[in-house]
Amino acid sequence: MRAVTVAISVIALVDKDVISFSPPVSTPLPPNRSAPQFMFFADTAVENESLNFQITPLDGSETTIENAAKFMVDSFWLQSPQQLVQGSDSSNISESAKASLINTQADDLMNKYGERMGRRKLDSFLLAAFDGGDTMDGALSSLEHVQGLVTIEVRLLDRQEDILSADASERMLTQAVASLGPKQRREFKDSSVIDIANQLLPPDITAVCSLSNLCVSPSARRKGLAVKLCREAERLAKEKLGFTQMYLRVEASNEAAKRLYEEKLGYECVYDIESASVLRVDGNDGTFVEIESDIVVMNKIL
């Protein structure tokens, strides 16, 4: 087991719960291998309760990203039914260790969903569920009414390997366009990731929309919110980004999460990945650590 600062995802293909980290990994990964995935798994939803939640895309401001990171650390990493904290009881984690986790999470979210100059090559959305308050401006100025989060982002999927990391996806897309002549490069200048992948990359490489960072507050679990967040993410993937399938990754041992995805959301198992890298929390020093776990990749037609 080694300390890492890494990347996360769940996905949507062209025709739960998770995080992606982009800070440097302590040990190099294979060129096209995805970095370890932070997986957020909500409790199974209860469909007969009324859902008085509003879900809206958030802006990428520094305040929004910082508050989203705080919510994820508090509601998922430190209070997951999976018991993701190692080396210390989650209730005994020091404030400095907790602050370190929040900073690492915020860095990753800012890299993937924060404000930046120019358009991102890989589109992404950060969505939040509220139980009240003014949500129209997309700013997460406080955590008072926040009950859940989920993110989606475009990646590349190597059918022979796994979902590629954001860095590997961008690098492959950039290299594909750069290999063309000047006239062809101009033709693909404003092309979508879907078009570039379909026309310039090998058949086994396809553009996907990754659903990640599904996180529900303990007080809002078993009320159908995880399902509602996923369905809104699926709607955006189809209507805004043009994808027709959604993919996700879940640890094989997480039976509750698999039931949620299969029974409530209609996902099916596509293939298994043995001894994949996943993340846990080192409660003593406030870092994320990498361990091995079998992964199930699932998908759903939107």
What does this structure look like?
- It is a single chain.
- This protein has 302 residues and is an alpha+beta fold.
- It contains seven helices and nine strands.
- Strands 1, 3, 7, 8 and 9 form a five-stranded mixed β-sheet that branches.
- The protein is globular.
- The relative contact order is 0.25.
- The N terminus is likely disordered.
Question: How are the SSEs ordered, and which strands pair?
Answer:
Elements: E1 2-4, E2 54-57, H1 62-77, E3 85-86, H2 95-113, E4 124-130, E5 146-158, H3 166-178, H4 182-187, H5 193-200, E6 205-216, H6 225-239, E7 245-251, H7 255-264, E8 268-282, E9 287-301
Parallel strand pairs: 3-8
Antiparallel strand pairs: 1-9, 2-4, 4-5, 5-6, 7-9, 8-9
Helical proportion?
25-40%
**pLDDT averaged over residues:** 83
Q: What does the largest sheet look like?
A: 5 strands, mixed
Strand runs, count: 9
Indicate the structural class.
Answer: alpha+beta
Low-confidence stretches: 1-33, 37-50
Number of DSSP helical runs = 7
Strand content: 25-35%
Give the N-to-C terminal Cα separation: 38 Å
**Shape label:** globular
Q: What gyration radius follows from the Cα positions, in whole Å? A: 18 Å
H/E series: EEHEHEEHHHEHEHEE
Quick take:
The chain is 29% helix and 26% strand. By secondary structure, the protein is of the alpha+beta class.
